[in-house]
Amino acid sequence: MKYVYGPVPSRRLGRSLGVDIVPLKTCNYQCIYCQLGKTTNFTNIRTNYFPKNKLINEIKNAINENKEKFDYITFVGSGEPTLYKDIGELISTTKNLTNKPICVITNGSLLYVPEVRNALLLADVVLPSLDGGDKIMFKKINRPHPSLNFDTIIQGFKDFKKIYKGKFWIEIMLMRDINDSKKNLLKIKKIVDSIKPDRIDINVPIRPPAEKWVKKPRKNLISNLNEIFIEYNNINYPEMGSFKLYSPNLEEELLSIIKRHPMRFEQIIETFSSENLSRHDLLLKLEEMELENKIQKTYYNKKIFWKLK
Ligand code: SF4
User: Ligand 1, residues 20, 22, 27: which to mutate, most atoms within 8 A of Cβ?
Assistant: First the structure.
């Protein structure tokens, strides 16, 4: 499939069937921690990047093929999904095809646009990100499109949250010596309190980031987090959750996942191993794909990740 992938294991969503509605990597941010690499199509133009009917056909087929094997359908993928102009229509059509909840993982930058707000109101879960407590941090971390303004974006979060009936979970990415100081955490907390999300997820860069100098915070950050975000009480560190894929087409599934998320060997084992597919078989398969120049190893945080060549 070209636009739908997975189900993939997701820290927050269990088994998620992903729908990629913008081409790699189309975004109005250039986050220093982005796991998709550098933003190659840096734009704030909202348009239908792929034909709607093709997306809908694939979604329909994927739902039929996977039936009970996923927990969520997630609009995310290779960039910022709200740049797809008719995202609202995609969500409403998908809702008519399944009872499973629909989630949108977004940077939240366009929630100030009424059309985007109305579109996302149709989703069951919206997961926006907020990494900086002020415009200086915002520019340093997210390196937004020049037409975007920090205060307007935060107002968009608040306006959306006021009318939204679904779950609104903000994700905060913390990085060593960039935004993990107590001062910055307090600034973020103040903004979060004014938005009133249903939950926050604190994350750290666990996959190779766009900029090599981005590092995970030191462990002593946890005491600050516990102190500052105590009432939110949901601090996620590295990925967890055991999960198995069902597809017999290992290579295709593997490529479709690591195209979006570089994976550690242990995650690959967790995701793909089965009675018929041992750890050793998987290692051989990875080495074969490496020799064929389809994938490559990369090192981050002293761990080996596999990513697309
Ligand atoms: S992390 Fe998300 S918002 Fe940031 S550059 Fe990557 S795709 Fe865009």
Answer: 27
